[in-house]
Design brief:
heterodimer; A: alpha/beta; 14 helices; 8 strands; B: alpha/beta; Aldehyde Dehydrogenase, Chain A, domain 1; Aldehyde Dehydrogenase, Chain A, domain 2; 2 domains; seven-stranded mixed β-sheet; six-stranded mixed β-sheet; 15 helices
Chain lengths: 324, 477
């Protein structure tokens, strides 16, 4: 039993979970949107900006989740993950690469070949995250989902990004969603579990808060906004609600759950705005790759470009950054 | 590992502040008849920004005469559609010069530039846009088939939203066909004078808008001037009562927007995080220099501790300091006089036995500053629960039932604003029917829109500003 469940001391029937989840304070959408918009006006300049750009790079789960992914594509992405800017070894490596399960082994081999950037403060290695559980729709039996997870973990994934069954959630079968997360949690073994809520399909911020708590109670290490395959993906109000949920959950149980935002985050400006949300909602202690991640691909080059602009005072053209 | 935002000051260079400012009468700037001046200071630094002309009786006479002439010869006879063009032009220039206005407002008033930039200036422009639309449709405002302007309006405004209050007063008056003599507050004259410059830029006929700077005597001379047909005042209840007495029996029209002691009522089923934001926005917006501020937090006793804990946590993240820094949440208190008043009332709270709390928050060495402050354990009988503090000071009271919430909220001589926080729609309506306040917000606070009427009753005044209702104050229907 996870510490969260133990602390909350809850039964896991649909009815019992409904009581817990529907007993959460409501989220007023207008107010949440206004707060997120107000935090978006924070002005981050100079040293603070440079810090935020480097931290954003360190928080990236560099992602490719396409039907057209090939070993070559994965190898190129892994090289980029280790050394985002070949011209500047001070640029830190990203937190992880994120791929489909069948490509985990390729990523593992490629990452073993290189060394992380000298700029990596933790001197940690680049982790391998893999989506699983019939990503992105989650429409498969539990057995198939668990096989998917086992496949990823046995190939060497350090982190598993699972999707919840949104159909079950919307139908009120909270117990089923809970049990699935528990089962996947177990199948993960030592691997970290990120639970994707797919907030674009949950539609209301009340649902986002409830799904966040459900995932945390079931033992999620991270809660994640989106697959990136559904629009809208991550939005600032959704992130605000999820960051409030992990803050409240930590207050109640003492366990800190991470948040991953994903989908449509392409500019350094967006990334810095998310960091502001983290700082002023969950609190500064969440400003670490251990507790906040950004799932993205093209974002990295914009961060690199803004970083070099911040250091040199001028923009380099796009061709000075590698396209992988 | 910490991350603090680097200083992000808005440039002062976007606005040129002259050493001296004259009165704006009959389309021209000029000195006061007797040449007197007074300084206006930046409350964040105590630096003198400029010397401003001090209008006396002769200047009031001249301005009222100019307004009368402009009403008879130019503005009164002008078709509404033509008046609208001027108002649209003013609105557009306000938008074009928004940064200039925002910086000047923050310098002269002390409010954070984030607020002057995102609230004061855009809302001021929105008021001109809104009333420009009414100028040629007055007969359809539901006030009567052929409403007529009143003539010359004498308007006296406060220092908390200098530009915005000027817009609230001028836009409906001008749309309705009146001409205006505006008296901005003594401590914040600069944006009204810049607005006068915008009137010149928009080619507004001379005399339609006149701006007289000065102190209380100037305002008194204006509102009691026999040539003024209509008086509109926003400010303290004491001054409002004086004006009311002065105008009694003269047949001249009056609207007053006075003080308040707004109750922000939080039920146990309120959206928690948004309610905390609403409490913060209710009392710490504009340093609490807001007549409709939610200065009394009425929170259901069963959740009082949780709400207060969350509130304190949130207040610890507020950033107090340089008003021109784009990340500042709490700026300077507008004047030493106001700071003294806030300090005195807070001391009364201590003396009466309330528990005072402020987040750790270093105050700048120069200028007028007061930290965000929360008093818990406040009773209805305490002065801090009854008197308007007009500063960043929140009094927390508790209630047990909806009836008790209504009783306590209404137990004040004021009647301007209230807020209700609950997820239950029927309770919002039930509360709104019983609360004696001109404005009631549900699950939000301090939200303004030019289309929505604003105003109070009882000791908070009478008359409405904004919306269709705002036209009634300037029309004879």
């Amino acid at each position: 039993m996870s510490p969260g469940t133990a602390a909350a001391g809850i039964a896991t029937s649909d009815a019992a979970l409904r009581q817990v989840l529907h007993g959460l304070p409501g989220v007023d959408q207008v107010g949440a949107e206004a707060r997120a918009a107000s935090l978006a006006t924070r002005s981050v300049k100079r040293d603070a900006k440079l810090w935020a750009l480097d931290m954003s790079i360190r928080m990236i789960d560099l992602t490719t989740l396409e039907g057209a992914d090939t070993p070559g594509k994965i190898r190129a992405m892994c090289a980029k993950a280790l050394r985002p800017d070949p011209a500047d070894p001070a640029v830190p490596s990203v937190a992880a690469v994120c791929v489909y399960p069948d490509l985990v082994a390729v990523a593992r081999a490629q990452l073993a070949r290189g060394t992380p950037s000298a700029g990596q403060p933790s001197a940690g290695r680049v982790a391998i995250a893999s989506v699983a559980t019939a990503f992105p729709s989650g429409r498969a039996s539990l057995a198939v989902k668990l096989a998917d997870v086992n496949d990823a973990v046995s190939s060497g994934a350090d982190e598993v990004d699972m999707v919840i069954d949104r159909g079950a959630f919307l139908a009120g079968r909270y117990g089923q969603v809970y049990e699935e997360i528990r089962a996947v949690r177990e199948a993960c073994g030592a691997a970290h579990l990120k639970v994707i809520l797919e907030t674009g399909e949950l539609a209301t911020l009340d649902n986002v808060a409830r799904a966040s708590w459900l995932a945390m109670l079931a033992g999620a290490d991270f809660i994640k906004t989106s697959t990136g395959k559904v629009s809208p993906a991550s939005t600032p109000p959704v992130a605000l609600v999820m960051l409030g949920a992990v803050r409240d959950y930590a207050r109640a149980t003492g366990r800190q759950v991470g948040v991953k935002v994903a989908g449509g985050i392409r500019t350094a400006k967006d990334a810095v705005r998310y960091l502001v949300l983290v700082r002023e909602t969950a609190g500064p202690e969440w400003l670490t790759p251990a507790l906040f991640r950004i799932g993205a691909s093209s974002l990295l080059n914009d961060l690199l470009m803004q970083r070099s602009k911040q250091l040199t005072g001028q923009y380099a053209g796009p061709d000075y950054f590698t396209l992988d | 590992m910490t991350w603090d935002y680097a200083p992000a000051p808005e440039s002062r260079a976007v606005v040129t502040i002259a050493g001296e400012y004259g009165l704006f009468v009959d389309g021209e700037f000029g000195p006061a008849a007797d040449g007197r001046q007074f300084p206006t200071v930046n409350p964040a630094t105590e630096e003198t920004l400029a010397q401003v002309a001090l209008a006396g009786q002769a200047d009031v006479d001249r301005a009222v005469a100019a307004a009368r002439a402009a009403h008879q010869d130019a503005w009164g006879p002008m078709p509404g559609a033509e008046r609208a063009k001027y108002l649209y032009r003013i609105a557009r220039v306000l938008q074009e010069r928004a940064r200039e206005f925002a910086v000047l407002e923050s310098l002269d008033n002390g409010k954070p530039v984030r607020e002057s930039r995102d609230v004061d200036v855009p809302l001021a422009a929105a008021h001109f846009f809104y009333y420009a639309g009414w100028a040629d449709k007055l007969e359809y405002a539901g006030l009567g088939p052929a409403p007529r302007p009143l003539g010359v309006a004498g308007q006296v405004i406060p220092w908390n939203f200098p530009l915005l209050m000027a817009a609230w007063k001028l836009a409906p008056a001008l749309a309705a066909g009146n001409t205006c003599v505006l008296k901005p507050a003594e401590t914040t004259p600069l944006t009204a004078l810049l607005l006068a410059e915008v009137c010149q830029q928009a080619d507004l006929p001379p005399g339609v808008v006149n701006v007289l700077t000065g102190a209380g005597d100037t305002g008194a001379a204006l509102v009691s001037h026999p040539g003024v047909d209509k008086v509109a005042f926003t400010g303290s209840t004491d001054v409002g009562k004086e004006i009311s007495r002065a105008l009694a029996g003269t047949g001249r029209r009056l609207t007053l927007e006075l003080g308040g002691k707004g109750a922000n009522i939080v039920f146990d089923d309120a959206p928690a995080d948004q309610a905390v934001e609403g409490i913060v926005n209710g009392i710490f917006f504009n340093q609490g220099h807001v007549c409709c501020a939610g200065s009394r937090l009425l929170v259901q006793e069963s959740v009082a501790d949780t709400v207060v804990d969350r509130l304190k946590e949130r207040l610890a993240t507020l950033r107090l300091g340089d008003p021109l820094d784009k990340n500042t949440d709490i700026g300077a208190i507008n004047s030493r006089e106001q700071l003294d008043k806030i300090s005195a009332l807070s001391a009364a709270g201590d003396a009466e036995g309330a528990e005072r709390w402020s987040p750790p928050c270093p105050l700048p060495a120069r200028g007028f500053w007061f930290p965000p402050t929360v008093f818990t354990g406040v009773s209805q009988s305490y002065r801090i629960a009854r008197e308007e503090i007009f500063g960043p000071v929140l009094s927390v009271l508790t209630f047990r039932t909806p009836e008790e919430a209504v009783t306590k909220a209404n137990n004040t001589p004021y009647g301007l604003s209230a807020g209700v926080w609950t997820e239950k729609g029927s309770r919002i309506l039930w509360m709104a029917q019983r609360l004696r306040a001109g404005v009631i917000w549900a699950n939000t606070y301090n939200r303004f829109d030019p289309a929505s009427p604003f105003g109070g009753y009882r000791e908070s005044g009478f008359g409405r500003e904004g919306g269709r209702h705002g036209l009634a104050a300037y029309l004879d229907a």
